[in-house]
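Standup, Tuesday
Yesterday: got the pipeline producing C-alpha cells again.
Today: sanity-check two examples.
Blockers: none.

Example 1:
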Amino acid sequence: MDTTLNSYEDKMQKSVDYLISDFAAIRAGRANPNVLNKIRVDYYGVPTPIQQVGNVTIPEPRILQIAPWDKSLIKAIKKAIMASDIGINPMDDGSVIRLIFPEVTEERRKELSKGIRKKGEEQKVAVRNTRRDGNDAIKKAQKASEISEDEQKNLEDRLQKMTDKYTKEIDKLAEEKVKEIMTV
C-alpha cells in the first residue's frame, strides 16, 4: 500500500508543478520569457516552441526581444504571437521582434491577483480530490481484508499529512505570486 501512497503523492506534486508553470506565464508588467512557453511557430510544417527557433532576450525590463536564427521565420513568429492569448502586439525591424510590455494598472493587478488565487484554489481542490481517491482505495483495501484497521488509520493519517503539506505549498506559491504582482 506504500507504493500506492507514493502514486498519490506524485499526483499532488504534479498539481503543484502545474501551478508553478501556470504562474510563470502570468505577466506582471515585466518582460518574462515564460509567456512564450505555450506559443508554437510553424517551422517547416512542424509546430516548434519559439525558444527553439531563435534567441529570446530581455534587453530592458519591459522589452522581450526575439532574434530568429532564420530571418524568414519573422512573419511566422509574429503570426503565432498575435494568435496567442498574451495580448501584446509584436513589432519587428526585419531582423528581430520586440514585445513591449505595458505598465500594469492597479485595477489589472487586483484582477491578476484574483486569478492567481483562483488558480491556487483549483489546484488545492485537485490535491483534495487526490486525497479522496486515496482514502477510497484505502477503505476498499481494508474491506477486502488486505490491510488491518490500524494500517487503514495510519495510511489515512499519512495521506492527510501529504494533503496538508501540498495545500500549504500551494498557498505559499499563490501568496508569493500575488506579492510579486502587487509590488511590480
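Example 2:
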Amino acid sequence: MSFLSSFDISASGMTAQRLRLDIASQNIANIETTRTENGTPYRRKQVVLEERTRSPFQVTLDQAMNQVDTPAGVIVKQITEDQSDLKSVYNPTHPDADEQGYVQMPNVDLIQETIDGMAASRAYEANITAFNAMKLMAQKALEIGK
C-alpha cells in the first residue's frame, strides 16, 4: 500500500459519512410526510456501508512486491428503507386519515436520527483528523530534503 492511498482511504470515509448525514437530514425533513409519490407514507432510509476492496490488479501487484494486503476504504453498498411498522396517529381531520380517523405516519424517530447524525459527524471529523495527520507527515518528509 502506498503512502498516498491513505489519503484515499480517509476521503472515502468522509464521503460515506457525509452521505449518512445527508440521509439522516432527509429522514428528519420527512418526519411528517404522509404521502410520497407512490401514495404511501415516507419510510426511514438507512445507509449500508461496506469495506472497499482493491482491484485484482492492485492485489496482484502488492503480492508481487511482497506488500501487506490492506483495506482500501469504505463504500456505500446501498440505501435501504426501514421496513418497521409505521406509526398510527388519531387525527380524523387529516386528509390522509382512514375511515376510523387514523393516519399512517412515517417510521422516523427524531432521537434516533439525531444520534445517527451526531455519529456520522464525529466519524467525519475523525477522518479529517487522520487526513490532516497524514498531510503533516508528508510535509515533514518533504522538509527532510531541504
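Quick observation on example 2: Helices lie at 5-29, 56-64, 110-144. The longest strand covers residues 74-81.
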